[in-house]
Design goal:
By secondary structure, the protein is of the alpha+beta class. The chain has a single domain, classed as Transferase(Phosphotransferase), domain 1 (Orthogonal Bundle), CATH 1.10.510. It is 36% helix and 16% strand. It has eight helices and seven strands, in the order αβββαααββααββαα. The protein has a five-stranded antiparallel sheet with strand order 1-2-3-5-4. A two-stranded antiparallel sheet has the order 6-7. β6 and β7 form a beta hairpin. α6 runs antiparallel to α8.
């Protein structure tokens, strides 16, 4: 075989192309929520970049003097949320739980961006490769049917079995689509990680299971009140 018979080499992925610096100045967020914006990774279709919205955070802390007081002593500042999520991801995906893969978007690491430090996460997509709809999106469209309801029940059972600690049980934090392996289902994309100063739910799987069940029941009741569950 000579060189002419060899397949053309594909451009290699460099460290900088994945982990930055990434220029997001001209990019439009795919979604925004709480104190973060979510961008498509400029070079890697399978990844999203979460960056802090410092203005929203400042407004939030201004209205809460006690939080503003004690958070000034946190060395990681606004980026404590990244450590919470990375810690929860590592803890739950390495603990023997009977589940070979926890149903949550995978965390790849952090990257330097033009908007500050960004968290790199797996992109859950629809069939066209766009960011997947959340359960809140599907409920608004009247697509919270019996099959999806059963999948939601199974998702929260799996999260409890894996002892995932949730701080925000919301339909906006659950996406329905395909992960990077092409596996379709429901995935937790936000709202996880230990926040309290005394992490009772991280210490006790039983207490955490009880809390997840209670919060999930409240979420379902809220969805049933607000949206039709009849398929569109």
């Amino acid at each position: 075989m000579n060189s002419a018979d060899l397949p053309a080499c594909q451009p290699s992925v460099t460290f900088q192309s994945v982990f930055g610096p990434l220029d997001l100045n001209a990019a439009e967020p795919l979604a925004s929520g709480g104190d973060r914006h979510i961008f498509q990774h400029p070079h890697t279709p399978a990844l999203l970049v979460k960056v802090m919205d410092m203005r929203a955070r400042a407004i939030y802390l201004e209205a809460r003097p006690f939080k503003r007081w004690y958070k000034q002593y946190q060395r990681e500042s606004a980026y404590r949320v990244y450590l919470n999520e990375i810690s929860e991801y590592v803890t739950t995906t390495t603990r023997p739980s009977g589940i070979w893969q926890v149903p949550m978007a995978r965390i790849v690491g952090v990257a330097q961006t033009s908007l500050g430090l960004g968290l790199l996460v797996e992109k859950i997509t629809d069939d066209a490769g766009n960011i997947a709809p959340t359960v809140a999106d599907l409920a608004k469209a009247g697509k919270l049917d019996e099959q999806l309801s059963m999948q939601l029940d199974e998702l929260f059972k799996d999260l409890a079995d894996a002892h995932v600690v949730l701080h925000d049980v919301s339909p906006s934090n659950i996406a329905f689509g395909k992960n990077a392996d092409g596996k379709q289902g429901l995935y937790l994309i936000d709202g996880f990680g230990v926040l309290p100063l005394i992490p009772l739910y991280a210490w006790s799987k039983r207490l955490n299971r009880w809390r997840i069940g209670r919060k999930y029941k409240e979420m379902r009741e809220s969805l049933d009140r607000r949206y039709s569950r009849t398929p569109a």
